[in-house]
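Session log. Operator J.P. requested a structure for one protein chain; no other inputs attached. Running the standard single-chain path with token output.
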Amino acid sequence: MKPHPRFPRSRKPTSVCRHCPDWRRQQGFTLVEIAIALTLIAVLMAMGLKSQGLIEQYRQSQFINQVRALDSNLQTYRNVNGRWPGDCNRDGLLDYPLVDSSQLLPALLDYAVPESFTAATDATTTYGLGMVCPDNTLDPYAEANVVFNELKRGGLTPTGQPNRVAAAHSLGSHAYLGYFSTMPIDFALLEERFNAIVLPRVTIAAARKLAVAIDGFDGSAADLHRVRRTSDMQNFDPLWTADGETEATRITVVVFFDRIPPHE
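Structure written below.
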């Protein structure tokens, strides 16, 4: 029996759709395609790592610029006013003691903006937002915010900027200003105290670059020049990188912007 011309005999289904696009008939990826995909992934990963490296280099450059700007502002204030900001008793030293890096926390710094700057009466005055050195006495006024407030009052930093923002740097920590003592605080003599910027939680890589920017080189020693490494906020470490550390290890850096301690 012949099939009706309008109803041809049905054919057995085939496993391949002859009229479908090529991508419908493809059963999997070829080795060439897999190799290309892996190559693209490797290229993207390399680009990502390079981008992270460039970002870190940018942060380190910003950090160095921020420290140098802070140093410059301190020098300018002294040239204009005849004393350092925060040196209320005019003995040549900032009044705030930089004793323990574990206690140098952002909470020490104001996170509000004062409406005006108010002079403390004397060293016993309770600190308030925007307090600065006493106008009519020569008493030391040891408070972490005073030096930043006086820089603002001198027009060297934005008056509408909180101290916690003014002290922040691009490596995710803050700068603290005061005097660094190379003797126990109970016995420290005036000549054993030195004006300093203390920078906790700085990577060794950034510390070495800061030393190059300020001292001209880093070398193998971290205890000779203006930029130094300290582990106990009293002595200086002889090497930038100790055993078991990498360039990403975080350390405490001290930058002396006036006299520097002698090398023993």
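Operator note: The chain has one domain: 47-256.
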